[in-house]
Structure formats: structure tokens, C-alpha cells
Amino acid sequence: HQACRQGYSALYLRTPRLLEQLRIAHGDGSFGRTLQQLAKVDVLILDDWGLAPLEENARHDLLEVIDDRAGSRSTILTSQLPVDHWHGWINDPTLADALLDRLVHNAYRIVMKGESLRRKNTEEEAAS
Known about the structure:
Layout (H helix, E strand, L loop, with lengths): L1 H4 L4 E5 H14 L2 H10 L2 E5 L8 H14 L4 E4 L8 H5 L2 H12 L12 H11 L1
Parallel strand pairs: 1-2, 2-3
Helix pairs in contact: 2-3, 3-4, 4-6
């Protein structure tokens, strides 16, 4: 929020939706342009990282996105999957090493504990 107030551009995407957009971009010839757009955003927020299994093409696409941004733009990942499971989720040792090296280098890691606010709010609404 603060970055936007200071004039930085930001883009929020669920990771599965990003991967679907990249798959479509391969098909319609806009993949390069899509990568350029993602590389220019000051703050890219990828939600639901690790939520669904990765196909081979998606692994390569994620590496392209992250590599284009590494060292020049901020990328925020949110995930329910613990970081120590990300390597297995990527499911390709070489790509996982390359991708995680770019993500973890100079990263700030925030671990949030506690119950889900969605679940808590639903339970409170049901009780009232």
C-alpha cells in the first residue's frame, strides 16, 4: 500500500492465474511482451505460491519472470507452502536451484502464525 502511495507501480496476481496468462501468451505470440510488462512493474505480488502442481512449461516461465526482475524490482510471494517445500514443489532440481537462488538472495522472510482470518471471520459470522 505504501509503495503505491509513493508512486510505485504494483501488480497483484494469484500464481495460478499468472501461469495461465503466460500459457495463453505463448499461444497468441505475446509472451515476450507479457514478460516485459511484468519486468517493468515496481512491485509484483504473487499470491498462492505453491498452491497447485507445476507443469514443466510453468517452471520455465516462472524462472523467466523472476530472472527478469531479480536485483531490479521487488517481488512479494505469499504461500501456505513452507519455504523448505518449495524445491519439491518446483520438481526440477536444476530449475529449483536457479529459481530459489534468485528469490532467496536479499529476501526478507516473514512467517505468520495463527489461525486463518477467513476461517475466524466465518466462524464469528455463524455464531452471531
